[in-house]
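FORM 7B - TANDEM STRUCTURE REPORT

SECTION 1: FIRST PROTEIN
SEQUENCE AND TOKENS:
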Amino acid sequence: MRKHFMAILGGHSGRVAAGVAATLVAGSAAHAVTLPVTSGLIMHLDSSSVTTDGSGNVTQWNDQSGLGNHATQGDNTMQPTLEAAVTPTGEGVIRFDSQADATPEHLVIAGNSTDFDMSATTWFVVFRAQTDTNNRRMWTSAYLDVDPDPGNSILSSQALGSITDVSTSETDPGLGYRSLGRDAAGAFTATTTASAGGGTPSALNTTDFFVGSSYFDSSTDEIFAMLTAPDGTQYTDTQNGATEQLSGHLQTLIGAQTGNDLVIDANGWSGDIAAMVIYNRVLTPQEFADVTEALRLSYIGNVAPPLVGDLDDDGFVGIADLNIVLGNWNSNVTAGDELQGDPSGDGFVGIEDLNTVLGNWNAGTPPSGVAVPEPASLVLLGLGGLAALRRR
């Protein structure tokens, strides 16, 4: 299944149709997003349909799947806020700010054994993270499960989406983004975006919006996780062995973590969520790609990929970038730090980095007043710089 997914994800361009929001709320987005896949859809939240208390505090995030799985919050001390025109395409967001307190801002989806009791699920979330010391669960579900010991019932929390702040003391501070599933013995299995698709997603930051997505397949005990960057770059990972125990659904929380007694603990989440979509089945690879791209284009838009060789990020590959490489020649630097001359990402400034710059010479638009050396002069500059470095 995973090989099929990896063969089709990335590079597929979905087309999003603009629909009309069922309910327009002051400060909300201009339109609702029409999803390209509706079969198995059990929840669709976006900022086009939100009920507030009149002061921007969210009392209900309205489900647009038609099944009524609204996310609500009656306690005004724990209500997130609706913020208008925040995403790059001008859509609104729901803003959560846990501030590491014991009662983080969150929304609750009431128990629903018809829609949420399922043997498989696929979910998507469009988010922008904020940094604090408790930046963890984006959403979790609590279920009444059957313990492996006959006759014993336990309450388990299925953590279906997480983001790990690098400042936390969790097991691997480099995870960045992950998806969790709990097995019958009560242990969690996590997928992360750190082992495939280019390594730890250094692109993950607190400025841009990303599309997070995952599926759980109980027939194979597989968890698949993906992080899609603004320019469409994707980081993926998969794990096996997380047998789902999704029965007896009691509640789902957005922005906080459920505990075994349904008491909200301090593992709240801080950041913006523009949309959340949940299906009660594993989507096909093509469907997965279509929904991912539809959400990316709707909330982030077309973002040009980074210019290869443009180490100083001025939109042009030229002498300034060459000087960065030459100035750090033969140095051990932070892996992938282009401002230290390491576009190759191997932690060492050498011939691969020089070739990256020279191979893309004059790409982009030169800044005003910057002279562009001719190719022959470029060769002399490079050789002269290397000779000087060798003498040094």
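SECTION 2: SECOND PROTEIN
SEQUENCE AND TOKENS:
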Amino acid sequence: MPQPAVSHDVLIHDAHAPSRLGLGVLLRAQPWVGRCHLAGDLSTAVGLARTHRPSVAVVDVSSAGGFAGHHCDALRRVHTTLAIVLTARC
């Protein structure tokens, strides 16, 4: 008997709306993604992480500037087991 597919919620934290929305569309098409939560700023990302407890956060470091570590720390404070993937636009 086949195992049920694992579904993960994903948090996308990117200040650039086209990137945030585009990545959300791409990820929603993946069978392992249940829901995508989109945040354009740190306070929204922290609130979504606290409320929805996503499995993975995709954090754009170009949006965070020199504060990428601060953004990751803030997310980890509200969700200690959150896996964080860092991305950057060129």
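SECTION 3: OBSERVATIONS ON SECOND PROTEIN
The chain has four helices and four strands.
The CA atoms of residues 9 and 52 lie 8 Å apart.

SECTION 4: SIGNATURE
Preparer initials: ____
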